[in-house]
Write a structure and sequence with these properties.
With about 200 residues, the protein is mainly beta. It has a single domain, classed as Pnp Oxidase, Chain A (Roll). About 10% of the residues lie in helices and about 35% in strands. The chain is built from three helices and 14 strands. The strands form four sheets. It has a seven-stranded antiparallel β-sheet with strand order 3-2-6-9-10-5-4, with helices on one face. Strands 1-13-14 form a three-stranded antiparallel β-sheet, with no helix packed on it. Strands 7-8 form a two-stranded antiparallel ribbon. It is globular, with a radius of gyration of 18 Å. It binds flavin mononucleotide. The site of flavin mononucleotide (FMN) has 17 residues, from strand 3, strand 5 and helix 1.
Protein backbone atom coordinates (compact mmCIF):
# COMPACT_ATOMS: atom_id res chain seq x y z
CA UNK A 1 0.00 0.00 0.00
CA UNK A 2 0.99 3.64 -0.27
CA UNK A 3 -0.62 6.52 1.56
CA UNK A 4 -0.05 10.21 2.10
CA UNK A 5 -0.42 10.82 5.86
CA UNK A 6 -2.26 14.10 5.30
CA UNK A 7 -5.01 12.17 3.44
CA UNK A 8 -5.39 9.30 5.97
CA UNK A 9 -4.24 5.66 5.92
CA UNK A 10 -7.52 3.75 5.65
CA UNK A 11 -6.35 1.21 8.28
CA UNK A 12 -8.10 0.49 11.59
CA UNK A 13 -5.17 2.13 13.46
CA UNK A 14 -2.49 4.58 12.35
CA UNK A 15 0.61 2.43 11.62
CA UNK A 16 3.11 5.31 11.80
CA UNK A 17 4.47 4.62 15.29
CA UNK A 18 4.65 0.85 14.61
CA UNK A 19 6.91 1.66 11.66
CA UNK A 20 9.44 3.52 13.81
CA UNK A 21 10.39 0.96 16.44
CA UNK A 22 11.63 0.25 18.98
CA UNK A 23 11.51 3.79 20.37
CA UNK A 24 13.33 4.53 23.62
CA UNK A 25 11.15 5.94 26.36
CA UNK A 26 12.10 9.24 27.94
CA UNK A 27 10.61 9.34 31.44
CA UNK A 28 10.72 12.92 32.58
CA UNK A 29 10.62 14.51 35.97
CA UNK A 30 9.97 18.25 35.93
CA UNK A 31 8.92 20.85 38.48
CA UNK A 32 5.57 22.62 38.28
CA UNK A 33 5.46 26.35 38.93
CA UNK A 34 4.41 25.76 42.58
CA UNK A 35 7.43 23.48 43.13
CA UNK A 36 5.44 20.21 43.04
CA UNK A 37 6.68 17.31 40.92
CA UNK A 38 5.51 16.18 37.49
CA UNK A 39 6.35 12.82 35.90
CA UNK A 40 5.46 11.62 32.37
CA UNK A 41 6.77 9.28 29.64
CA UNK A 42 7.51 10.32 26.05
CA UNK A 43 8.61 7.94 23.28
CA UNK A 44 9.16 10.66 20.72
CA UNK A 45 12.48 10.89 22.49
CA UNK A 46 16.09 10.35 21.63
CA UNK A 47 19.70 11.42 22.01
CA UNK A 48 20.76 13.67 19.13
CA UNK A 49 24.41 14.48 19.94
CA UNK A 50 27.10 13.30 22.30
CA UNK A 51 29.39 16.36 22.45
CA UNK A 52 27.75 17.95 24.24
CA UNK A 53 25.27 15.19 25.05
CA UNK A 54 21.83 16.45 23.97
CA UNK A 55 18.42 14.78 24.18
CA UNK A 56 14.98 15.85 23.00
CA UNK A 57 11.36 14.86 23.48
CA UNK A 58 8.29 15.88 21.53
CA UNK A 59 5.00 16.77 23.20
CA UNK A 60 2.09 16.30 20.82
CA UNK A 61 -0.08 19.25 19.98
CA UNK A 62 -3.23 19.45 22.06
CA UNK A 63 -5.38 22.18 23.60
CA UNK A 64 -2.59 23.37 25.83
CA UNK A 65 1.10 22.55 26.12
CA UNK A 66 1.77 19.31 27.98
CA UNK A 67 3.13 19.85 31.48
CA UNK A 68 6.58 18.35 30.84
CA UNK A 69 7.25 20.65 27.87
CA UNK A 70 5.95 23.72 29.66
CA UNK A 71 7.78 22.96 32.92
CA UNK A 72 11.10 22.26 31.18
CA UNK A 73 10.94 25.64 29.42
CA UNK A 74 9.72 27.57 32.47
CA UNK A 75 12.14 26.01 34.96
CA UNK A 76 15.07 25.73 32.56
CA UNK A 77 15.74 22.12 33.56
CA UNK A 78 14.37 18.58 33.46
CA UNK A 79 15.44 15.01 34.23
CA UNK A 80 15.20 11.87 32.07
CA UNK A 81 15.00 8.51 33.89
CA UNK A 82 15.51 5.14 32.20
CA UNK A 83 12.51 2.79 32.28
CA UNK A 84 12.99 -0.88 33.16
CA UNK A 85 10.67 -3.88 33.02
CA UNK A 86 10.16 -3.61 36.78
CA UNK A 87 9.10 0.04 36.43
CA UNK A 88 6.75 -0.50 33.47
CA UNK A 89 3.46 -0.24 35.40
CA UNK A 90 4.59 2.85 37.28
CA UNK A 91 5.76 4.47 34.04
CA UNK A 92 2.37 3.75 32.47
CA UNK A 93 0.55 5.16 35.52
CA UNK A 94 2.43 8.45 35.08
CA UNK A 95 1.05 8.81 31.54
CA UNK A 96 -2.44 9.50 32.88
CA UNK A 97 -3.73 12.86 31.62
CA UNK A 98 -4.30 14.69 34.89
CA UNK A 99 -4.66 18.37 35.73
CA UNK A 100 -1.48 20.44 35.82
CA UNK A 101 -0.20 20.45 39.38
CA UNK A 102 -1.16 16.81 40.06
CA UNK A 103 1.99 14.99 41.18
CA UNK A 104 2.16 11.75 39.14
CA UNK A 105 4.99 10.47 41.35
CA UNK A 106 2.38 10.16 44.12
CA UNK A 107 -0.16 8.49 41.79
CA UNK A 108 2.44 5.89 40.83
CA UNK A 109 3.98 5.67 44.34
CA UNK A 110 7.41 6.54 43.00
CA UNK A 111 10.23 7.44 45.34
CA UNK A 112 12.19 10.46 44.13
CA UNK A 113 15.82 11.30 44.94
CA UNK A 114 17.65 14.63 44.76
CA UNK A 115 19.80 15.60 41.79
CA UNK A 116 23.33 17.00 42.09
CA UNK A 117 23.23 20.07 39.84
CA UNK A 118 19.53 20.99 39.50
CA UNK A 119 16.45 21.32 41.71
CA UNK A 120 14.32 18.75 39.84
CA UNK A 121 14.42 15.30 41.49
CA UNK A 122 15.12 11.99 39.74
CA UNK A 123 13.35 8.65 40.05
CA UNK A 124 15.23 6.69 42.71
CA UNK A 125 14.53 3.20 41.28
CA UNK A 126 15.71 4.04 37.77
CA UNK A 127 19.13 2.54 36.93
CA UNK A 128 20.23 5.82 35.30
CA UNK A 129 19.03 9.42 35.15
CA UNK A 130 20.14 12.44 33.13
CA UNK A 131 20.13 15.91 34.66
CA UNK A 132 19.32 18.27 31.77
CA UNK A 133 19.60 21.99 31.23
CA UNK A 134 16.82 23.20 28.94
CA UNK A 135 18.15 24.51 25.60
CA UNK A 136 15.19 25.44 23.40
CA UNK A 137 11.84 24.36 22.01
CA UNK A 138 11.21 23.79 18.33
CA UNK A 139 7.56 24.21 17.34
CA UNK A 140 6.13 22.04 14.55
CA UNK A 141 2.61 23.14 13.59
CA UNK A 142 -0.05 20.43 13.40
CA UNK A 143 -2.01 19.76 10.23
CA UNK A 144 -5.10 19.83 12.45
CA UNK A 145 -6.52 22.50 14.72
CA UNK A 146 -4.54 21.78 17.89
CA UNK A 147 -1.50 23.60 19.17
CA UNK A 148 1.95 22.85 17.77
CA UNK A 149 4.07 19.81 18.55
CA UNK A 150 6.73 21.02 20.98
CA UNK A 151 10.20 19.49 20.57
CA UNK A 152 12.11 20.20 23.75
CA UNK A 153 15.92 20.00 23.64
CA UNK A 154 18.14 19.76 26.69
CA UNK A 155 21.86 19.41 27.33
CA UNK A 156 22.70 16.51 29.62
CA UNK A 157 24.85 18.14 32.28
CA UNK A 158 24.91 15.28 34.81
CA UNK A 159 24.45 11.52 34.59
CA UNK A 160 23.59 9.18 37.48
CA UNK A 161 24.24 5.45 37.02
CA UNK A 162 23.37 3.12 39.88
CA UNK A 163 26.57 1.37 40.96
CA UNK A 164 24.98 -2.09 40.66
CA UNK A 165 23.98 -1.31 37.05
CA UNK A 166 27.63 -1.25 35.96
CA UNK A 167 29.31 -4.59 35.22
CA UNK A 168 33.06 -4.34 34.58
CA UNK A 169 32.55 -0.65 33.79
CA UNK A 170 29.78 -1.25 31.22
CA UNK A 171 26.07 -0.46 31.34
CA UNK A 172 24.16 -3.39 29.89
CA UNK A 173 20.63 -2.46 28.70
CA UNK A 174 19.74 -6.15 28.38
CA UNK A 175 20.75 -6.98 31.97
CA UNK A 176 18.82 -3.91 33.17
CA UNK A 177 15.74 -4.97 31.15
CA UNK A 178 15.30 -1.52 29.60
CA UNK A 179 11.93 -1.28 27.84
CA UNK A 180 11.05 0.46 24.58
CA UNK A 181 7.85 1.37 22.79
CA UNK A 182 6.62 -0.52 19.76
CA UNK A 183 3.44 0.40 17.90
CA UNK A 184 -0.09 0.38 19.29
CA UNK A 185 -0.02 -0.81 22.95
CA UNK A 186 3.04 -3.02 22.44
CA UNK A 187 6.41 -2.75 24.15
CA UNK A 188 9.76 -4.53 23.89
CA UNK A 189 12.33 -5.46 26.51
CA UNK A 190 15.99 -5.07 25.51
CA UNK A 191 17.17 -8.50 24.36
CA UNK A 192 18.19 -10.54 21.35
CA UNK A 193 21.27 -8.32 21.13
CA UNK A 194 24.29 -9.04 18.91
CA UNK A 195 27.65 -7.40 18.30
CA UNK A 196 28.87 -6.03 14.98
CA UNK A 197 31.93 -3.82 14.58
CA UNK A 198 31.95 -0.97 12.07
CA UNK A 199 34.40 -1.34 9.16
CA UNK A 200 37.89 -0.21 10.15
CA UNK A 201 37.11 0.03 13.87
C1 LIG B 1 5.12 4.85 26.66
C2 LIG B 1 4.44 6.16 26.39
C3 LIG B 1 5.02 7.05 25.50
C4 LIG B 1 4.41 8.30 25.25
N1 LIG B 1 4.99 9.13 24.34
C5 LIG B 1 4.46 10.36 24.12
C6 LIG B 1 5.10 11.27 23.21
O1 LIG B 1 6.15 10.98 22.64
N2 LIG B 1 4.52 12.47 23.03
C7 LIG B 1 3.37 12.85 23.68
O2 LIG B 1 2.90 13.97 23.48
N3 LIG B 1 2.76 12.01 24.55
C8 LIG B 1 3.28 10.79 24.79
N4 LIG B 1 2.67 9.94 25.69
C9 LIG B 1 1.49 10.41 26.44
C10 LIG B 1 1.94 11.29 27.63
O3 LIG B 1 2.72 10.52 28.55
C11 LIG B 1 0.68 11.85 28.34
O4 LIG B 1 0.03 12.76 27.46
C12 LIG B 1 1.00 12.52 29.66
O5 LIG B 1 -0.19 12.80 30.35
C13 LIG B 1 1.77 13.81 29.50
O6 LIG B 1 2.03 14.29 30.80
P1 LIG B 1 2.47 15.76 31.15
O7 LIG B 1 1.38 16.69 30.65
O8 LIG B 1 2.58 15.71 32.64
O9 LIG B 1 3.79 16.02 30.47
C14 LIG B 1 3.22 8.66 25.92
C15 LIG B 1 2.63 7.74 26.82
C16 LIG B 1 3.23 6.51 27.05
C17 LIG B 1 2.59 5.53 28.00
Amino acid sequence: MFYEPKNGHGLPRDPFKALVTPRPIGWFTTLNQDGSNNVAPYSYFNAVADDPPVIFFSAGGSGQAKDSARNAAEQGEFVHNLVTWDLREKMNATSEEVDPGVDESKLAELELAPCELIKTPRIAASPASFECRYMHTLEIPQNGDGGPNLLVFGEVIGIHIRDDALEEGRFDPEAQKIIARLGYANYAVAGGTFRMLRPGL
